[in-house]
Each structure stands twice: as structure tokens, then as C-alpha cells.
Amino acid sequence: LAAAAHAAKLALMLGAALLPDYDSSANHSEARSTWNGVWDSVFYVDIATDGYQYEQQYAFLPLLPALLRWLGPYTSGMLWAGLFLSYICAVSSAVLLWTLSLAITHNPQVSAAAALLFMLNPASVFHVAVYTEGLFSMLTLLGLCLLYAWHPGSPQVNTSALATPAPSPVGCVRLWVAALCFMLSASTRSNGIINAGFLVHAAAQSVLLAWGQQSQGSTRSRWQAICRQLQWGASQT
């Protein structure tokens, strides 16, 4: 369903090329005279092609241009690489949102409704354009699924996945990968830095659980357990 919904958006965008633009001033560079090369897409394609050359380009973070440059040789140019990448990210985001919602609510109907609203709202058209919304959403939701939905050692979703007071090696890898996803999201959009708050939450919850599990021990053992969790949580953040 997600693949079909986003494919329909791409078809509508292609059909819009048959209509005259009310303002063509945003068309230039490789994106000139193409049906999706306007506004921010122009800057991302320019950066992917020639690097950062002008001061105004510094507002656009480097992950999406880097991926466009990497995918460009395998497609018909940077613009088509961006459309392919955005489409894959948009479909993946819908699936990840459904997975995360199911893990938190345990309600398939609510999860399906959340995914449908995410896919069908009018603003989601930016998820399939050469913009950062699709990539950012996928990275953020992937990190959240690693924290909240995919419990190590179990195929079932588990809302207590974050509650690991003494993380196993598998759990540590899971959290490091989540931190990597959030780091990449911050390399896509500047507001991705806020995603570090989820790792702070993980560390805080681990501290509270460590304190509770050491309730029968001495005060020294409690503080030792808390310090270990703080050190581990700080490294993740």
C-alpha cells in the first residue's frame, strides 16, 4: 500500500510537468527543464554535482548530496537518483512507523491508521521529491524502532526494549546503531540533533532501573551501578 501510494504521488508530479509553471525562476543547473528540479532540489543536485560553492548552500546539510553523488552513476543523473532514494525512504518510513506504532500501542487498527495518515496527508508529497524529508523520516523512525520496537533476542515487538539496565552485547550494538541513525539524521536536517533526546531518555531509564534493582544492596553498590549506566548512556548520546 505504501509503495502504491507513493508511486501515485510520483505519477502526479510527473503529470504536473504538462502544466505551465507559475514561476520558473527556480529552475537551473542539471535540474533545468526537468519536472522535479525546482526549489530545494536544485541546491541538493548542485551540491552533489559541484560541491559547496556558495554561502547560501551551507544551509543544506551534506548527507543527501553525498548519497546523490554516490547513486548518480547508477541512474540517469543526480535528479533521478534523488527520486529513487526518496521513494525508497518514503515507503520504508511508512513501514517503520507502522512497526513502531504497533510496538507502543499493541493495536493494529491504530497502527494502520497512523501509517495511512502519514502516507496520505498532502504534505507527504515532499517525501518523494528530492528533499530531505523522506531520508530524515526513515533514519529517525529506524532509530526509534531500534530503541522501542526491536528487542534483542526476540522476534516480537516489546515496549520494554529500552529497559535494559545491564545491556547485553547485542543490546549495545542495537543502541549504537540507533545512535548512528540519529547521527545520520542530524547530517540530513539540523533538527535531527533533537533526536539525541531519545538516547538521553534511554540512559535515564536505565539509571532508574539500575537503582531499583540495587534496592536491596548497599548505597555504594547503588551508586556504582548508576555510574556505570551514566557512562554507558553518555557514550551512546
Distance between the termini: 35 Å
- Could you state the oligomeric state of the chains shown? single chain
The radius of gyration is 21 Å
How many H/I helices? 9
Low-confidence stretches: 30-36, 152-166
Class based on secondary structure composition and strand pairing: mainly alpha
What is the approximate shape? flat
Per DSSP, what share of the residues sits in E-state strands of 2 or more residues?
under 5%
Classify the helix fraction into a percent range.
55-70%
Question: What is the strand tally?
Answer: 0
The secondary-structure element order is: HHHHHHHHH
Largest sheet: none
Average pLDDT works out at: 77
Explain how this protein is built.
Helices cover 62% and strands 0% of the residues. The protein is built from nine helices and no strands. α2 crosses α3 (63-71) and α4 runs parallel beside α6 (133-148). Mean pLDDT is 77; it is low at 30-36 and 152-166.
Summarize the model shown:
The chain is mainly α and 237 residues long. It contains nine helices and no strands.
Short key terms for the protein model shown above:
237 residues
Sequence-ordered SSE layout with sheet pairings:
Blueprint: H1 2-16, H2 40-50, H3 63-71, H4 78-105, H5 108-120, H6 133-148, H7 169-186, H8 196-213, H9 219-236
Helix pairs in contact: 1-4, 2-3, 3-4, 4-5, 4-6, 6-7, 8-9
